[in-house]
Give the backbone structure.
Amino acid sequence: MRKLKNNELERLSVTDFKTAKKTPIIIVLDNVRSLNNIGSVFRTSDAFLIEKIYLCGITATPPHKDIHKTALGSTETVTWEYVENTMDVIEALKTKNIQVCAIEQAEKAILLNDFSPKANTKYAFVFGNEVKGVAQQVVSASDNVIEIPQYGSKHSLNISVSCGVVLWDVFSKLLVNSR
């Protein structure tokens, strides 16, 4: 086997990305403090053609050199918006019949491997602060809470890792459902 060169990867241009059909997923970052985590979420969102990212509360916004360092230009491809209050975003999404899912460890959470996204449904996945997680008010207002099963001693994943795990899982399930 031979590794592919960058020019063999069939990457979309910024213009082509903007006009491409998007995956019916929105990301909401609830008070994420790490600029590197924010950049990683942008980069992962670009990889899976995510529709939009909402940056809320203390979550920093582009342009910023530390976001750019991990985003690698994806802040130019993925649509984003800053909204100070996360609950304002949640309420607005719910009025549009978008299913809001907090990614958190909570009572009655659905394990990610048991979560079955429905075709023709748009989802918003909320990821929280590195220490405090998703705010309780946001968890309470969500349609579902999804938990990533973990079996070690920490039961804690970095937010950018959690985002990658959830997006890959849901993206792959949506692909299977669309066939």
Remarks:
- The CA atoms of residues 29 and 117 lie 20 Å apart.
- Strands lie at 23-30, 50-56, 80-83, 99-103, 110-111, 123-128, 144-147.
- Helices lie at 14-19, 35-47, 65-71, 86-95, 136-141, 159-177.
- The chain is about 35% helix and 20% strand.
